[in-house]
């Protein structure tokens, strides 16, 4: 059920961003195992994407994880506060990734409730990339973790959505990306209450 390393090597990051909907993201920490069904993603297509941290081949200590083999976690701090999880895709040195934006709580609900101080059926517990990271206990220590190992991984439990069930929109919070700001590279499950922006 765990996605294989080969899955993440697909160079079509837009396809993977859609295909990851319905897959289940797991973490294992000292608190226990928690997981959520992925219901919202964004695709970032690498050095030619003005919204990508790797635009123009930019390479820093922060972005180094993006240049890893597909199947690596790229976790960075947004505004110095929120940890955001990206799934690195494609081959090594081709810095494409999928931002995981929202999940539906699935396993370890009591742990998630403790972390977020709210019930698991509350939209805000895991809606948005910062909230889902908090609910799953993801912090900067997860950066560069391999997604086929035992700390963070994604499983296929045969949850799938038809084309009519998947919404498509522009990515959020990237007005600086000029003509790439409005590209339709955000994918979400239309009827999920854990998706905040339609």
From TrEMBL:
DNA damage listed as a keyword: yes
GO biological process: base-excision repair
InterPro entries registered for this protein in UniProt: Formyl_transferase-like_C_sf, MPG, MPG_sf
CDD domains referenced in this protein's UniProt entry, alphabetically: AAG
Enzyme class: hydrolase
Keywords, in A-Z order: DNA damage, DNA repair, Hydrolase
Annotated PANTHER family: DNA-3-METHYLADENINE GLYCOSYLASE
NCBIfam families: 3mg (TIGR00567)
Name under which the protein is recorded: Putative 3-methyladenine DNA glycosylase
Species of origin: Chryseobacterium indoltheticum
């Amino acid at each position: 059920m765990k996605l294989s390393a080969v899955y993440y090597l697909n160079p079509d990051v837009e396809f993977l961003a859609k295909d990851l909907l319905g897959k289940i993201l797991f973490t294992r920490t000292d608190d226990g195992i928690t997981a959520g069904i992925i219901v919202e993603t964004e695709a970032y297509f690498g050095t030619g994407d003005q919204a990508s941290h790797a635009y123009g081949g930019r390479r820093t200590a922060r972005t180094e994880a993006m240049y890893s083999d597909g199947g690596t976690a790229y976790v960075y701090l947004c505004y110095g506060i929120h940890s955001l999880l990206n799934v690195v895709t494609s081959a090594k040195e081709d810095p494409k990734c999928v931002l995981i934006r929202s999940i539906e709580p699935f396993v370890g609900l009591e742990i998630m409730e403790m972390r977020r101080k709210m019930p698991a059926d509350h939209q805000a517990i895991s809606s948005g990339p910062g909230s889902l990271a908090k609910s799953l206990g993801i912090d900067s220590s997860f950066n560069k973790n391999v997604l086929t190992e035992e700390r963070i991984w994604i499983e296929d439990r045969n949850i799938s959505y038809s084309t009519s069930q998947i919404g498509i929109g522009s990515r959020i919070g990237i007005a600086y990306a000029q003509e790439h700001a409005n590209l339709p590279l955000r994918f979400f499950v239309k009827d999920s209450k854990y998706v905040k922006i339609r």
